Every structure is written in structure tokens, then in C-alpha cells.
Amino acid sequence: MIRNILGSLVALAGAASAVLSPFRDWYDGRAGRDYRVRDLFEGITATESGVLVSILLPFLFAALLVIAGVVLRSRLAVALAGLVVLGFTILWMVRQGQAAGSLTVGGDGAGLQVGVVNAWAGGVLMLIGALLMRGRGWGRGSARARREREREPVEPYAAPPADQVDMWPPTQEPGMSTHTSPWPEPEVDPYTGPDPHDPRTRSYPQAPPPGRPGDPRDPVHPPRQPPEG
């Protein structure tokens, strides 16, 4: 986000510098708007040019490309605008050098002047802005990546077979129980205490069961012996 904003500001600054350059002096006190676009292809002449058919025309086109690139976050459009400005500036320098015999830089108003510097600076700033911008096709949130993810087939959910799912009768929902009968589970026998016949549960000797009087097995009531005699 920050890179897009910074790149957009740099590119817009370059567009402003490029559009301003034809209104400044380019060579020997002659402004850039006085050079016709056709002179860049046929040769520099002394004929004056109108503003809309001067070198300002391609620079205006480049500025519109920059604005469209910033709105659409298109690095290609911004970079193309910078190449247009630099290309026409280099073409003018070639034609001017052919017309003058050589290009000179002088501080007394002769030779290359500030308008050319503005054009070069505008084109370079546009290219730097294009490099700083991330654009739409970069980063993890790109539209192309989202479209590819949307086109991927999604496998439908396949329910497991009925014989592998435990069902609870009241709600017919999967549960932890393995009981599949519609009838309630039988209850276990209630607890009745320790088993008297299990020697492990005997902590003390049990008293023998009481017997009937006269029973020889009864130790409390032994059988009576008949009197002698």
C-alpha cells in the first residue's frame, strides 16, 4: 500500500515536470512549444508551431497515461509514459544536433537549457514511480491468484456408510454408543454385596448355620443321650 502511494506520487511529479518542460526554453532561448512534432521526424526548422501540435502533444499523452496507470495501479502504463517522454526528448536532441551541427551546454542562454532538463527529469521520475509501484499483479492478494483459486474444483462431502456410523435411536444422530437396537439396553443385576462363597471376600470365619435341637450337626444343641440303666 505504501509503495503504491509513493510510486504514484513520484510518477505524478514526473508527469507534471514533463508537461511543464515545453513551456521552458530548450535551446538558444527557443521554448519547447515552438518545435512541431513533425519536425522531430523531418528535421528541425525555424517554423513556429502551435501549442497543440508542438512537442507538448506527446507529453500530454504521457501525462494521461500516468494518471490512468495510477488509478488502475498499472505499472506498465506508467513505465510506457516514461518511455514516451524520454523517447521524444532523445529524438529532439538528435534532430537538434543535426540542425545545429552539435549540441552545446552554455550558461549564457546558448545551447541546451532548463526545458530539456525538465523533460529528462519527468521521464526518469515516471520510470522510478513504475518501479516503486506494486501494481495489481503483485502480492498475495492478486486478482489472478483469486480467480485461479475460484476455478479449482471443490470435492463434495461424502457421508460415511450407514453401517459404519453409530446411530442413537431417539435423534438418529451419530454418537459414541454401539447400541443399535430400538429397545433399551438391559440393566445389570443390582449389587448384593460380596459373594459369601468367594474365599477372597472372607475377612473373618463365619459361624455355622444354626440347626434344630437334636441335630448331630448342631454344635449349640447337641443330641441328648438316653439314660443308662
UniProtKB/TrEMBL annotation:
Compositionally biased residues, Basic and acidic residues: 145-154
Chain positions covered by the region annotation Disordered: 142-229
Segments crossing the lipid bilayer: 51-71, 76-94, 114-133
Keywords, comma-separated and alphabetical: Membrane, Transmembrane, Transmembrane helix
Protein name from the UniProt record: Uncharacterized protein
Source species of the chain: Streptomyces arboris
